[in-house]
């Protein structure tokens, strides 16, 4: 996306950015990945203009983006949770969560950061619109609403999932601002469809806004699909093996299991990997697979939490914040679920950058509820210490995980440690890195190529590079046999 992308070069017309995909290939080309992120590519071009291919400026911008997103998220948490330590806790959890390492330390993760930045700007503009609606001059609420729509479009131009902010804004309007229950929303929709418009104006207002948000979302998606040539992208079997499976049962069970794995990575980010493709997560082929138990437990837990918050009162305003947090967790993740279209990955930690906001809010809301229910000062102190320990553990893991992203060799080795029996891609890539280094690394490179071949006997590149190393070492007969 950077080193071989012609759109970053000063001699390339800058308008090409708006016709090419993330890697500089024409969007309508049959080989295009269809990832349309022109604002991210434009930021890379500005980096290239300032410092060429020197990495420091790219990483500096990424860290600055993460700081800005963290600040805006803390503002959002303060609006939802009020002042005090709970919004600070939510912000600290987001700032330090190890799942963000790929999005921040990996330069191309800037697409997720930029989308998150405009996502929050759009949401905060919409919240401002809701607060001014009916209490200010007519022009100001409209202006904030238009700013929200513009930022939503900007978020989508950073990365495709940014368009989901429109659904999150609709959820805020109905569940947080108007505090409507789901059954009330369904009743209003039913009466509206039947032509009964005798409901109070305050109940009809959210329906009008939600309709406008939905219309803008349809317009953005239609323009996006038209711009990429009205054709979906094509992915290889190794990118998403479940999507290529001929068995409906296998696809269904695996796709339902993947959100549970992603949630576990948010809850316990101990085992992180740069590459979850191929067989890093084996397909679930039968009902008897014990991983289905995790799937059932995950969805029952989410359903129980949603029902509990909708039908019972935890604390004043808490039930609405819980529903909103669940929506912020789930809605931005929907494009990655393979529910609407197949995606080019099994698990990608960077796509959890925005959904993790909902997770951090849930943790902060849960701790606030516990704190209020606990009467003894010592118990409250223990809870505060637990929160501090959680932030500290996240921070330590983030520092350790950042070391894996220092260079290619360390990154590929970290992938092998996570999935030692599956990650033949990491073995092959590690061999390539070692082969390109000084000659005393050749034996180590051969070792990893053999591991890659043992894991995947049809990996042609591993045979080719093994033969080249043997030939350079004068072991001609071995090289011939390897090439054959």
TrEMBL record:
InterPro entries found in the cross-reference section: TMTC_DUF1736, TMTC_O-mannosyltransferase, TPR-like_helical_dom_sf
Sorted keywords for this record are: Membrane, Repeat, TPR repeat, Transmembrane, Transmembrane helix
Give coiled-coil spans as residue ranges: none
A Pfam family cross-referenced in the UniProt record is: TMTC_DUF1736
TM segment ranges: 203-228, 248-272, 293-311, 323-344, 351-370, 382-400
Any GO CC annotation of this UniProt entry: endoplasmic reticulum membrane
Q: Which GO biological process entries does UniProt record here? A: protein O-linked glycosylation via mannose
| Gene Ontology MF annotations | mannosyltransferase activity
Q: Where is the DUF1736 domain?
A: 230-302
Q: Which PANTHER family match?
A: PROTEIN O-MANNOSYL-TRANSFERASE TMTC2 (PTHR44216)
- The name of this protein is Transmembrane O-mannosyltransferase targeting cadherins 2
């Amino acid at each position: 996306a950077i080193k071989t992308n012609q759109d970053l070069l000063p001699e390339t017309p800058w308008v090409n950015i708006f016709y090419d995909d993330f890697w500089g290939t024409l969007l309508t080309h049959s080989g295009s990945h269809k990832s349309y992120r022109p604002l991210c590519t434009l930021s890379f071009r500005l980096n290239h203009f300032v410092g060429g291919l020197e990495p420091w400026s790219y990483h500096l911008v990424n860290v600055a983006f993460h700081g800005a997103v963290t600040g805006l998220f803390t503002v959002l948490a303060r609006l939802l949770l009020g002042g005090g330590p709970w919004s600070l806790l939510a912000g600290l959890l987001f700032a330090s969560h190890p799942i963000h390492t790929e999005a921040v330390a990996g330069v191309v993760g800037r697409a997720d950061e930029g989308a998150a930045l405009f996502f929050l700007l759009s949401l905060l503009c919409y919240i401002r619109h809701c607060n001014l609606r009916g209490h200010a001059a007519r022009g100001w609420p409209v202006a904030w609403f238009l700013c929200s729509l513009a930022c939503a479009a900007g978020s989508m131009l950073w990365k495709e999932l940014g368009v989901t902010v429109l659904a999150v804004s609709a959820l805020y309007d109905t569940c947080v601002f108007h505090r409507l229950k789901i059954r009330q929303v369904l009743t209003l929709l039913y009466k509206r469809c039947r032509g009964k418009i005798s409901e109070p104006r305050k109940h009809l207002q959210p329906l009008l806004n939600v309709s406008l948000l939905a219309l803008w979302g349809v317009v953005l998606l239609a323009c996006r699909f038209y711009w990429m040539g009205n054709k979906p992208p094509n992915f290889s079997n190794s990118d998403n093996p479940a999507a290529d499976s001929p068995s409906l049962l296998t696809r269904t069970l695996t796709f339902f299991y993947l959100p549970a794995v992603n949630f576990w990575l948010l809850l316990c980010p101990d085992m992180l990997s740069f590459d979850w493709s191929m067989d890093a997560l084996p397909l679930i082929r039968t009902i008897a697979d014990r991983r289905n138990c995790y799937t059932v437990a995950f969805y029952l837990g989410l359903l129980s939490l949603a029902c509990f918050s909708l039908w019972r009162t935890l604390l004043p305003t808490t039930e609405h914040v819980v529903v909103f947090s669940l929506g912020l967790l789930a809605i931005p993740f929907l494009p990655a679920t393979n529910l609407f279209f197949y995606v080019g990955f099994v698990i990608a930690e960077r796509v959890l950058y925005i959904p993790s906001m909902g997770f951090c809010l849930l943790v902060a809301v849960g701790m606030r509820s516990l704190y209020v229910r606990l009467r003894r000062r010592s118990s409250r102190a223990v809870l505060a210490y637990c929160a501090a320990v959680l932030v500290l553990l996240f921070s330590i893991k983030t520092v350790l995980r950042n070391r894996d992203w220092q260079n290619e060799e360390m990154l590929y080795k970290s992938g092998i440690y996570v999935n030692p029996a599956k990650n033949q891609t990491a073995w092959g890539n590690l061999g390539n890195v070692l082969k390109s280094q000084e000659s005393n690394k050749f034996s180590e490179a051969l070792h990893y190529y053999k591991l890659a071949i043992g894991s995947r006997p049809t990996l042609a590149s591993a045979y080719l590079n093994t033969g080249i190393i043997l030939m350079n070492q004068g072991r001609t007969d071995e090289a011939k046999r390897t090439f054959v």
